[in-house]
Specification:
Elements (H helix, E strand, L loop, with lengths): L3 H9 L4 H7 L2 H7 L4 H19 L3 H10 L5 H8 L3 H14 L5 H5 L8
Helix pairs in contact: 2-4, 3-4, 5-7, 6-7
Pfam families: GerE
GO molecular function: DNA binding
Keywords: DNA-binding, Transcription, Transcription regulation
Length: about 120
């Protein structure tokens, strides 16, 4: 029986790659990468598609994103940067929009740009 992640990759391979970037997590990809070149290529493509979105963020937005994906609460981010809680909420809302994320899980997938 296939796992849900495998089903997503197989189902979405027939659709456009941008759809894939929104529906499968980096952790799901890592779990599927066992000596499978097509899945490695898929992971590389996901990063390639996300890179321009990440690069378009301001320095401050990248700083907020880095803290959010640790994960820190909005209140903790505000304290760490010495800014108002409402400012953090606004940045986070803008990050979700600019990165085309519909959930915190999708936003967390951008941690690949901070790891290693």
């Amino acid at each position: 029986m296939q796992t849900q992640s495998q089903w997503k990759v197989e189902r979405l391979s027939e659709e456009c790659i941008l759809r894939v970037t929104m529906d499968i997590s980096v952790d799901d990809i890592a779990a599927l990468l066992v000596n499978d070149k097509s899945k490695i290529d898929l992971a590389k493509e996901m990063i390639r598609v996300r890179q321009p979105l990440f690069d378009a963020l301001s320095v401050r937005e990248k700083e907020i994103l880095r803290l959010v994906i640790q994960p820190l609460s909005n209140k903790q981010v505000a304290g760490a940067l010495n800014i108002a809680l409402d400012t953090v909420k606004t940045h986070r809302k803008n990050l979700m929009r600019k990165l085309s994320c519909r959930s915190l899980k999708e936003l967390m997938e951008y941690r690949v740009f901070y790891d290693g």
